[in-house]
Amino acid sequence: MMKILPTSEKKWYLVYTNPRAEKKVAKSYEQLGFEYFLPLQRTIKQWSDRKKWVEEPLFKSYVFIKIDLEKSIYHVLSVAGASRFVQFNGRAAEVDEREINIVKKLLGNLSDLTILNSSTDYLEHEEGDAIEIVAGPLMGCEGKFLNKKGSQSVLIELKTMQQVVCVSMPLAYIRPKNNPKNKIA
After folding, report:
1. DSSP string for 111-143
2. Where do the domains of the chain lie, and which CATH numbers do they carry?
3. Which residues contact 115 (CB under 8 A, 6 or more apart)?
4. Could you report the per-residue pLDDT of 35-75, keeping only the tens digit for each?
5. pTM metric for this prediction
């Protein structure tokens, strides 16, 4: 009797790269046929003689990759510039597909975006209520409300990556979590 083994499922993981090697690692993954995601943002860099628009990684030293870990771990880490997988409890940390989609939505629809380096960076501000976003491109996401210098901002924590994204959006787009009566008109 032949036993049918379950097919392995591809999942998103986070590869930590050497400093400033994100684009090189992503290009190597592309050449190897891996599905990867390297979120980039356009910023202005100034040199002594000029200013120039450049694309920089949104998350420094990180590249997302969707793989069957058991089959591809050697190939992923053998790429020049790839250092290791981000780990929790000694295992490669899986990144929830929803977090990947949040980042893609942020890049595609919002220009007022700030990445804070770790979840402790915003503790200097007074933490607000837990909220959910009920309209706009991030509808369905949850976060924390922060009123910063008169503008409305929402903190969305991407737990797997230990990153916090701060986004400005109209107050009408958010409501306190667990309060279904506050719907937008």
Report:
1. S-EEEESSTTTTTTSPP--EEEE-SSTTTT-EE
2. 9-95 (3.30.70.940), 104-185 (2.30.30.30)
3. 58, 59, 163, 164, 165, 166
4. 999 998 877 888 889 888 888 898 899 999 999 999 999 99
5. 0.68
